# Entry
Amino acid sequence: MQTILAVNCGSSSIKFKLFTLPNLDTLIYGQASNVASKGSKPSIKLTVHHGTTGAQDDHASEEEEENMPYEDVFERIVALVEEKATTLKQFEQFKADDVIKAVSHRVVHGGTETEPMLISQEHQEGLQKLDDLSDFAPLHNHRAVQVVKFCLKHLPKTYQILCFDTLFHSTLPAHIYTYPITAPKKEPAIPLRKYGAHGLSYAYILRTMSEHLKKNPEHLNLIMCHLGSGASVCVVKNGKSFDTSMGLTPLEGLPGGTRTGSIDPALIFHHTPDASEKVEFNGLPVSKGEMIMNKEGGLQAIAGTSNFGAIASTMSSSKPDTKAPQLTPEIAKLAYDIFLDRLLNFVGAYLLKLKGNIDAIVFSGGIGERSIDLRRDLATYIDGCEIDEEINSKGVNTGNGDVVEISQKGGKGPRMFVCFTDEETQTAMMTLEVLEQKNL
# Structure
């Protein structure tokens, strides 16, 4: 049996899943955290899924050496996958380079690319372009390049398939992706325009909602809210991305856990006069301004925590949060109101762009799936949209591909859903398509 290993590289985390070919059944999944974080010990947690065999899932975790390099943590992940896969009935032995046919990589910024990129020992020309794009997603793209290079060296028989978040938004109209500014004097690596992000998540949600509503994707109009530590909104018109809140980089749009979101562009130069100077972040060179807006903004800057759940619960409490003394009920309400207000700006605008012809508003991501208050409060601003309080207040324990409707049946306003998203599964599906199209 051959497999696909899906990898999702963050600035200080690595998510991974091992799938069977061609059915894409999940065999192993897990995450490494605190990766290449100065002064921290990386930890790896994984689960071995025994499927319908009747055996219980196995869980494993281990802590690595402090300041272990990013590639070394990934090497340890591969070793753990090799070790744990032999406990599955499908394998007597598991040598990664023989059993893993392809590694699918989630890459945040693909620039003008409109298809997944295949990289192998014979075809490595795309790597330099990918690294050049790191300037536009400095906390993510470079990490993906590091892992791709590791795979080319240590897993030479495997194909590397790069799946870009920006692919989903390649259908944006010119009047939406164009910024009204003169052309730069020095030609950049890619045109300076809106590219969007979270596209793999949106592609997964679109497919899942199409199946749930039993409606062809080409006929679907959705407003999708991917709300987590990184947050964005996307409007899909006739199955295609028509507009999205993130822009040239993931900084534009909604505030996140530590991202500012859209602010007056001149603000950073008054806040940090030397904003253009390069600094090191997790071993990567980034401008001081980008580092501040990516890592010192958002909920963390206002509330002293990026935990939206803590903010929502403290808001209705009479005492500060013990883990974040700065988080008083008043500060929590301010942070919550800012997030809700910015979310309303995009949802309201996108409702207008659809002229009311909408199939559903969909919440996803950690905040979207868990925040009862946020879903309820947003609905109060939309005419005719009524939440089923019983379903919404229970919280939504979604599983793989699950969809739950939280709006009342027969309401006059847009229907509202919570939909689980899975970027790793989406990249695996895209990788399977590439392998089949190229007869690999």
